[in-house]
Amino acid sequence: MSPDKKIQVQKILQTYDVDIFTIMEANISDDKLKYYQFPGYTLYNLPKYHQVASGILTGVKEGLTSHYDLIKSMGSTQDKCEIIRLNVWKCQNHFKTYAVYNPRQNCPNFDILNITHKTIVLGDFNAHSTRWGYKDTNIVGKEIEDMLNSNILELIYSNEDPATYLHYNGSRTTPDLLLASSDISEHTRRKIIDDPGSGHKPVIASITIGSKSMSRKVPTKLSWNFKKAD
């Protein structure tokens, strides 16, 4: 991650008052993490694997209670998918977030995800499906369709939204997906913002926490996808 990219990320965190952020393909080794501090955030790092574009950097706003778990790293099995889980508590609500990076040409196993209430699954899946704007459906896209059909998960997507990735050949696609459990899906919004120079546009997910007893609605904001952060 270059100094310029780090400044761009910090601006986005401040502008959108982000509670949680994840950066896919962050490419940061644990010994280099000290150079990538973000004031006001507690960081968790899944380090890059060998010389492969990989690793997930996660930040949680200080003051929020959180618990981080590494679910799967790239070199652990033949399946190269990277998955981390973050449990966060805000306004007496417990949210579970899975961040996923699935490399191209990899067939992932999503059975290890435990989908319950107040669960978010997000990341770069490299999954093709006509349900989110592709002209074809690949194996990973079929896996996600099956996951949507067999779990209390909803895809947060609109055909009106801009694509999240600009290919070098000029085509635009959406490999970056946001899924929310059905109990919070109606309160979850997705916003694609300007590309900070990575090819992938950052995606802001906002979850409105509200109940009859709460006069004030508090948006919990997650941001991810500052991909290829070097």
Automatic annotation (TrEMBL):
Residues 112-204 form the Endonuclease/exonuclease/phosphatase domain. Signal peptide: none annotated. Coiled coil: none annotated. One of its GO terms (molecular function) is catalytic activity. InterPro entries: Endo/exonu/phosph_ase_sf (IPR036691), Endo/exonuclease/phosphatase (IPR005135). This is Endo/exonuclease/phosphatase domain-containing protein.
